[in-house]
Amino acid sequence: MGYKSELVRTRSTWHVAFMSFVLASIPYGLATTLYYPLQGGGPAVVIWGWILVSLIILCVASSLGEITSVYPTAGGVYYQTFMLAPARIRRVSAYICGWCYVVGNITITLAVQFGTTLFFVACVNVFTDEDGNGIWGGEAGPPAWQIFLTFVGVTVVCNIISTCGNKYLHHLDTFAIFWTFAGIIAILVTVLAVAKQGRHSAKYAFTDFEPTSGWPAGWSFMVGLLHAGYATSSTGMVISMCEEVQHPATQVPKAMVITILINTVGGLLFLVPLMFVLPDLAMLVGLANGQPTPVIIKSAVGSAGGAIGLLLPLMVLAILCGVACTTAASRCTWAFARDGAIPGSQWLSQVHTKLELPFNAMMFSMVVQIALGAIYFGSPTAFNAFSGVGVISLTLSYAAPIAVSMLEGRRQVKGGKFYLGQWGWVLNIVALAWSCLALPLFCMPAYVPIPVQNINYAPVVLVGFVVIASAWYILWGRKNYRGPPTESVGLHPTASNQAADINPPNKKD
């Protein structure tokens, strides 16, 4: 592939599948964004939205797996776009895809850390004072500075675990999947068995549709898909781990597809019981913290102690998800930087020899996340921006290699070990159709009319990154950026690549 092998290959197929599972962190990823489908229409959006998006993402995962079986590098979809695109648009398409991939990885990691913060606050506040207000912040909730400092603490902890425990992360991922299903089963059995407020009928749990977002009914359902879109947006992030995987051409594609199937089942086991014990929908939608899951579980079990016991598995999974996202974001940033495509690339492309990981890229990602987290001081719905930009950017980056592969008649993937045959065209079309929908959909506010302080900043953050990427390309990339150092397409390493010792003679992986 033209790169020096610098990272240690310690992961098997199941290790990759488990990490991919932890990146999505079902049920945690569904718990933190449950507000969106409840406001978008209630149980029908929750259940059928999850099934619909899971089927779509299965198409995306299969399409990306097919391409990854041919080009398994840490550069992921960026490298794949460069290799698959026609020569006339190779550089620019890879550059755009790479920036979308890096921005998506960083902002979805930010969304996870911020979502964990808000979720932790909601979990603590299942305990209330004599007036019925949460013990952390009372009726108004914690002040913004406390939320921000908690977010910083969560982010730093995840970076410390990812850095210091790098050699043992695959064991942590293995633990996580068993921990997750133990937690799901505990929630499923307990809430249905206890059900202090009674149980709804199956008709209500699967078909009730009461949109309260202010959008027309059809579009309200679509906006509610952010719930499932956010939880499944990490599908292609695991490709960045290819250079730490044994036999990635076969293991990573299989792991990506296996994970979607596991996630779909795990998501239904978590969501369906909650819909049967759902308390008043208007009350849940009106929650100031936007975190209905702790309230639903407390209502079902009837006590704060019981609720926190069932929420504990989700709280642990939240940290594990943050660690996995932090790891993946650092790898993709490092991979893009070693081709000179990011300001400060020579520094960002270095691998720490003792830690055996791209430490500089990890610290860069952390600093960007903390800086963007300050948006919360201006908007209490900042989480919308982080999750929206993450989903949009990752979805677009996944679409790029699929689109250019189709543009070339899918001829370059025919020799892969995960070739989809004629079904590949159908799966590719579905994946691209989802990408076209995601761009406008996740820039929309969750409800209308919306006050100025609650505006969705996703378009603003996205445009900000576009400006930075465009400026860097005009000032430096137009003359210097040449893409991956791949001799097979007749190109040679750029000066910056040579300086970083990326493609030394006789040391190609």
Break the fold down into its secondary structure elements and pairings:
Blueprint: H1 13-24, H2 28-32, H3 35-40, H4 43-68, H5 77-84, H6 90-124, H7 144-164, H8 169-194, H9 202-207, H10 217-223, H11 226-232, H12 248-276, H13 281-285, H14 292-301, H15 304-337, H16 345-348, H17 359-373, H18 382-407, H19 423-441, H20 458-480, H21 495-499
Helix pairs in contact: 1-8, 1-12, 1-15, 4-11, 4-12, 4-18, 4-19, 5-6, 5-18, 6-7, 6-15, 6-17, 6-18, 7-15, 7-17, 8-12, 8-15, 14-15, 15-17, 18-19, 18-20
Region (Disordered): 487-509
Transmembrane segments: 12-35, 47-71, 92-122, 142-162, 174-195, 215-239, 260-287, 307-329, 357-377, 383-404, 425-448, 454-475
InterPro entries: AA/rel_permease1 (IPR002293), Amino_acid_permease_CS (IPR004840)
In CATH, what is the homologous superfamily?
Amino acid/polyamine transporter I
Q: Supply Rg.
A: 22 Å
- Strand composition percent: under 5%
Coarse shape: globular
Percentage of helical residues?
55-70%
Query: What's the architecture, going by CATH?
Result: Up-down Bundle
Low-confidence stretches: 487-509
- The CATH topology annotation reads as Amino acid/polyamine transporter I
Instruction: Indicate the mean pLDDT.
Output: 83
Biggest sheet features: none
Task: Name the helix and strand elements from N-terminus to C-terminus, one letter apiece.
Answer: HHHHHHHHHHHHHHHHHHHHH
**Multimer state:** single chain
Main location: membrane
Transmembrane segments: 12-35, 47-71, 92-122, 142-162, 174-195, 215-239, 260-287, 307-329, 357-377, 383-404, 425-448, 454-475
Organism: Cladorrhinum samala
Keywords: Membrane, Transmembrane, Transmembrane helix, Transport
